[in-house]
Design goal:
The structure holds 2 protein chains of 2 kinds.
Chain A (H helix, E strand, L loop, with lengths): L3 H9 L12 H7 L1 H25 L5 H13 L3 H12 L7 H13 L14 H36 L4 H15 L2 H15 L22 H38 L2 H8 L4 H14 L3 H22 L4 H10 L3 H29 L1 H4 L4
Chain B lengths: L7 H12 L8 H8 L1 H18 L1 H4 L29 H7 L1 H29 L1 H16 L2 H11 L5 H12 L1 H15 L2 H8 L4 H9 L4 H24 L10 H10 L9 H29 L7
Helix pairs in contact in B: 3-15, 6-7, 6-9, 6-10, 6-13, 7-10, 8-9, 9-13, 11-12, 13-14, 13-15, 14-15
The chains are: A mainly alpha, B mainly alpha.
């Protein structure tokens, strides 16, 4: 990200007279939108993995020390035995200088070596994550699309029905859903509709799929997976829709004030065409820039919502790893979830830049 | 309308001036109450929660370890029933809000300070400093809060409220910093700042005497938002069992209720629902307060 601020204008200026003052090739690459975003993603991943390395290994009373202590007191290992076991599980070598350890850790990461789980020895962290994270991506992805789509529709309704009971009701709805923490909403759903009223058979909806349902490419499987994911998805949609509604409302209101909308109406273009092609398309555009924030928020929320619904995604394992102080698994999940969010952000940014060329031109 | 971002008094005076009523300037609060019923209700609810949490403990006294029936439903003696050890739930509700609110307020103060100082400096100086601050903010903004909280809290033993507030502040500043930075960037271009620069008043003076006072309302709104975030994060830490602080706390009650299987005993509903209800109402009141403050101070800010 280093010189973006300085480089971008230089790259953007020559648009008007392309031939004479075309910037040198390295400037073109530096100013390239996608290149900048990829660089930014790489920096974030690098920072996070470094931070995790130092948190786990370097702090006094670090997880490695704690694990060694635990093995000695609980199982009566000698210090050397406990230490050797800890080192093999964390896949590090404490005798080496810190910088070399760090280099080992980084090459390990690059090769996908995240060590082994402390509490279930013999299983690799990467294997556990791989078996879980796809369910989280599945449920969170559906929820993001749903809440975005619904939020846009409701937000436009709010803007068009200003100062009516409808706007009041929808704005109250968005305030309430937006202020209840997602994990508390999950608890509320289970307690009221599951336990108290018995409307939702939530014990049968646990897990990612029903037992006996093979993971295959069929309608039955897709339906079953959706059934099991429906409660988490409902919670994500409810807690994130309010933000979209408010953003869409103010965005629509400012789009309605644009001259081209007045002009379109003056030309006698039917109101529904104005709504979809003049107001809607322009009002949605700025919302895409918020998608990146929403991804991080919903993925974060899923880490607590999943254990509550016992949905077998990565969040349920994250919860267990914290409860059992499974540090290797915890650091692996922290890394992989961050990397997923960063990559999702990258995709969203690139998609947004396709939709809105102004973003590519270097305006941040 | 450049002057719309001012202190409440001046805003109220402006409004009074608009109304051309030379008799008596309308007070800010009366103006607020008549234009913003939802916001007024939210403020009343918020103060009621403050009263309950800080004055309530003086009235609901005594010890709370007498063994009663486990998971009792509400009665004249136990207004909200009892918990899994037969302790009174109402007592825990009254005594459990204070620490939560104090930690949330300190965390919000810390994170607001971080984001105002660094956001304003980044915007004023620009260049390399701006890039460094933005990159760090970007990293913190991308990592989901729960991951950050979880990893930090597992690495550090959370045994003091100050430490808890510090960790919550570390996760709470990025969005506000970006907002402050873009605000200062736009204020920087205004004529009066340019005039101040022409007079060579120096960056600190321009920043603290000219720029920051003009975005006070904005900072206040975001401070309320910071509190909402700190409460969200704090209850997460309690829920994950990562806070080793004894005493009554709404977050702790939720965690205990969840761990003691309150989800599955219909009678345990009162124990786990009471703190959930309190936290949801608290969050709702804060969200509504910040929204109505936004409406009152500067409707234009929302468009940026």
């Amino acid at each position: 990200m280093a010189d973006i601020a300085n480089v971008a204008p230089a790259a953007a200026v020559p648009v008007e007279h392309v031939q004479d003052t075309s910037p040198p090739w390295y400037r073109q690459i530096l100013g390239n939108f996608i290149f900048r975003r990829v660089l930014r993603a790489a920096i974030t991943i690098y920072f996070v993995s470094t931070a995790i390395f130092f948190l786990v290994r370097m702090l006094p009373g670090s997880p490695v020390d704690v694990y060694i202590d635990q093995q000695m007191t609980q199982y009566g290992y000698t210090y050397d035995e406990a230490r050797n076991q800890a080192l093999s599980l964390f896949s590090i070598d404490v005798d080496k200088p810190v910088l070399l350890q760090y280099a080992d850790y980084m090459t390990g990461l690059a090769q996908g070596d995240l060590g082994q789980s402390l509490t279930s020895p013999g299983t690799t962290v990467l294997g556990i994550i791989n078996s879980r994270i796809w369910w989280t991506i599945f449920s969170v992805g559906i929820a993001l699309v749903l809440s975005f789509a619904l939020g846009i529709v409701l937000g436009m309704v709010m803007a068009y029905k200003r100062n009516t009971w409808m706007e009041g009701g929808l704005s109250g709805f968005s305030s309430i859903t937006g202020s209840i923490p997602d994990y508390l909403l999950a608890l509320l759903v289970i307690i009221t509709f599951g336990v108290r009223l018995g409307w939702i058979p939530f014990t049968g909806m646990r897990g990612a799929v029903s037992s006996g349902q093979a993971v295959e490419f069929s309608f039955a499987f897709a339906w079953d997976a959706l059934y099991h994911a429906s409660l988490p998805i409902a919670v994500y949609v409810f807690t994130s829709i309010g933000g979209w509604m408010l953003l869409m409302k103010s965005s629509t209101i400012s789009a309605l004030e644009e001259d081209f909308v007045t002009a379109a109406r003056a030309r006698g273009i039917p109101e529904w065409r104005v709504l979809f092609f003049y107001v809607g398309r322009n009002a949605i555009l700025p919302l895409f820039s918020r998608v990146t924030i929403a991804i991080g928020f919903v993925v974060g929320g899923s880490l607590l919502v999943e254990p509550i619904f016992q949905y077998e995604g990565i969040g349920q394992r994250f919860f267990q790893a914290i409860q059992r102080r499974d540090y290797t698994l915890l650091q692996g999940i922290a890394l992989m979830v961050t990397i997923s969010v960063v990559l999702a952000n990258l995709l969203a940014d690139i998609f947004y830049s396709r939709l809105d060329p102004r973003i590519r031109a270097g305006k941040n | 309308m450049n002057q719309a971002v001012l202190t409440p008094e001046i805003q109220a005076a402006d409004d009074a001036g608009d109304a051309a009523q030379p008799t008596r300037p309308q007070s800010f609060w009366r103006n607020f109450a008549s234009n913003n019923k939802v916001g007024t209700a939210a403020i009343i609810v918020f103060f009621a929660i403050l009263l309950l949490a800080f004055i309530g403990p003086f009235f609901v006294t005594g010890d709370n370890d007498r063994s009663r029936n486990v998971f009792d439903t509400p009665s004249a003696e136990n207004w909200l029933g009892t918990d899994y050890m037969g302790r009174d739930v109402w007592y825990q509700i009254v005594h459990g809000g204070g620490s939560l609110l104090i930690v949330a307020t300190s965390a919000a103060i810390l994170s607001t300070a971080i984001s105002v100082v660094f956001g304003a400096l980044a915007a004023m100086f620009g260049g390399k400093f701006d890039v460094v601050v933005l990159t760090i903010t970007d990293v913190f903004l991308t990592v989901p809060t729960i991951i950050l909280l979880g990893v930090l809290a597992v690495s550090v033993r959370l045994n003091s409220p100050l430490l808890l507030a510090l960790i919550l502040a570390v996760t709470g500043w990025p969005t506000l910093l970006l907002a402050v930075r873009s605000q200062v960037l736009s204020l920087k271009e205004r004529e009066y700042i340019e005039a101040a620069r022409m007079l060579d008043l120096g960056t600190p003076r321009i920043l603290f005497r000219e720029v920051l006072p003009n975005m006070m309302s904005y900072i206040v709104i975001n401070f309320v938002g910071g509190m909402t975030g700190a409460i969200y994060g704090q209850v997460i830490l309690y829920f994950l069992g990562l806070v080793s602080l004894a005493g009554n706390n709404w977050g702790l009650m939720i965690q205990q209720g969840y761990a003691q299987g309150a989800l599955f005993f219909p009678d345990a509903m009162w124990y786990i629902m009471s703190p959930i209800f309190m936290i949801c109402v608290l969050q709702l009141s804060l969200v509504l307060i910040s929204r109505s403050l936004e409406d009152v101070f500067n409707p234009r800010l929302r468009e940026s």
